Amino acid sequence: MTEQRIRVLQLNLNHCESAQDLVLQTVRELKVDVAILSDQHRPLTPPNTWISDADNQAAIWVRGGVPVQRIYAPPRLSHEEFIGLLNNIVDEARGKTPVLVASDFNAWATEWGSRETKPRGRALLNALATLDVLLLNTGSEPTFVGEQGESVIDLTFASVSLYNRVGSWRVSDVYTSSDHKAIVYEILLEKNQGVGRAPAGNRRWSARTLDGDSFAEIVSSMKIRSGSAENMVDELMSTIVRTCDASMSGGHDRRRREPVCWWNDDIAECRRDCIRAQRGDQRARGRPDEVIRREEFADARRRLRNAIKASKHLCWRQLCDEADRDVWGKPYRTVMSRLKAPRTSPPTAPDLVRRAVSTLFPSVIPRLIGIPPVLEEHLIPEVGVEELRWAYRRVRIGAAPGPDGIPNTALKAAVEACFDSFRRVFKKCLREGCFPARWKRQRLVLMLKPGKPVAEPSSYRPLCMLDTAGKVLERIMVGRLEAHTEGPAGLADSQFGFRKRRSTVDAIQTVLSTALSAISGK
């Protein structure tokens, strides 16, 4: 299986607005999955996934089962306050494995490239020694470059179990508009954390990449051999899965990330000017032209800030003008995305998942009713052309797929290309009285109810996704049942549940009407 990695960017934004603006573009250009930030200018709004502390001085992100601690220890902390912060970090991280500690401790120690070890650095080394973590920083390239000089104060520590899965740790030369440099590295996910395509139950394809002509050509050439209903269904769906592999890219493949809305060529050029001016300023330290180079760098930074502000203002005006022309267009979608609550991730702790499943789903009891004898085949009509069309046309394009991962767009294309094959398979299922086992499997997603404690199994709402092909067979069966139950010899007129065009309100009105008639003596 292909190794799956998440790319991480670690940066102190120095409470700078332009630095936070630039990081939005940087994560797109570097294809960053997780940004671990400190001293941010402001929290991001939905739909961005952003978790920060109460003081908005550090952002903490949890991804793929790896607890991440982002710590910012400002220089203003006294030594006693710094020791208290370290104690809190140790208490929080103790017992967790693997763990990643990404920090700007403002601490100096020769272990990470400082000229000397100061009290803060010594206290930090003593505290982290109890956690069995290792330093990821390599080399002596400074992570902070300011007017007062250079230093290595942005650090990354990883537990022993995670250390060998972190690679490509480096101090990036990308311009950040902060005194701190960006640190970029990758984390190799364990097999049970990966987001790749699994043999069963975790397949994903991107429906947007579907090559319709190629898909139709491949799937239309398939031949389903006669056999049992289970075997024919397995052969049919396996062929569609192989066709999806050949005509679509994986749903987890990295997509091209569009730049932020206000990014333009002028801003990109201003950023390049800043990089050149910054390097000139650094090379001029201690030389006669140091003051000139510093002023040039300050001018370049000022031009970049002004360019970003002007572009953001222009984009805002364009958004307002578009709102006047199209009330329900992009401006409406933008506002609604900000008003939505942040997405909550399903629980991943095995013990909690097991308890939630046992609480939310009843135990399977022995069969109470025997299986009725199967009718002779000639008594069960074939699946008609219009019958199948009616069933598969009700499939919603944007609905989530089941365990097979086949997008509904692809399934509908498969039915259209292999109409007779689907009719044969569905007819076989009906005549054998068999609902295939692979279509009974469900993909379970546990959604946390708003305001409920995360550790309680009853706090979750279960969503069970079935394979859409099985739903098409269900609709054919329902259509046949309704033709009988709604006929002259069907259900009683007083039966309201599970019937079309009959609601609970209708049942209540019937009861009230009967009661009023009885009271009036009619």
TrEMBL record:
One GO BP: DNA biosynthetic process
Domain Endonuclease/exonuclease/phosphatase, first and last residues per copy: 70-183
Signal peptide: none
Pfam families the UniProt entry points to: Exo_endo_phos_2
Name under which the protein is recorded: Endonuclease/exonuclease/phosphatase domain-containing protein
Source species of the chain: Trichogramma kaykai
